[in-house]
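Hi R.,

Here's the chain you asked about this morning:
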Amino acid sequence: MASGDWRVCVEVKEKDFLGVLVHLRR
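And here is the predicted structure, written out as tokens:
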């Protein structure tokens, strides 16, 4: 497992989570 893989995964999950929040707020 690359040292940067987990960080990319976390960034993607955070963006996805924010996208869901924005979608629910509309």
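One quick note: The two ends are 38 Å apart (CA to CA).

Cheers,
M.
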